Amino acid sequence: MEVTLYSTQQCMQCEATKKAFDRHGIAYELIDLNQNPHAKAQVAALGYRQLPVVIAGPDHWSGFRPDMIRRLVA
């Protein structure tokens, strides 16, 4: 399953999500919204206003969500 993490620098919840992915061995593509304006539009189109935004297959969520991260490992 492909996992994409939309984040920005100096985002505490983004850093926590990256660390959790790394700790659980979850491979992910990191997209920095400060460097990719097109990605900002994609996130906005999904209706999210809080970072990080994670897209994992058919599922997606925003914020640091340990419960959803654990589902990716199971």
From TrEMBL:
<keyword id="KW-0249">Electron transport</keyword>
<dbReference type="InterPro" id="IPR002109">
    <property type="entry name" value="Glutaredoxin"/>
</dbReference>
<keyword id="KW-0676">Redox-active center</keyword>
<keyword id="KW-0813">Transport</keyword>
<dbReference type="Pfam" id="PF00462">
    <property type="entry name" value="Glutaredoxin"/>
</dbReference>
<protein>
    <recommendedName>
        <fullName>Glutaredoxin-like protein NrdH</fullName>
    </recommendedName>
</protein>
<dbReference type="InterPro" id="IPR011909">
    <property type="entry name" value="GlrX_NrdH"/>
</dbReference>
<feature type="domain" description="Glutaredoxin">
    <location>
        <begin position="3"/>
        <end position="61"/>
    </location>
</feature>
<dbReference type="InterPro" id="IPR051548">
    <property type="entry name" value="Grx-like_ET"/>
</dbReference>
<comment type="similarity">
    <text>Belongs to the glutaredoxin family.</text>
</comment>
<comment type="function">
    <text>Electron transport system for the ribonucleotide reductase system NrdEF.</text>
</comment>
<dbReference type="InterPro" id="IPR036249">
    <property type="entry name" value="Thioredoxin-like_sf"/>
</dbReference>
<keyword id="KW-1015">Disulfide bond</keyword>
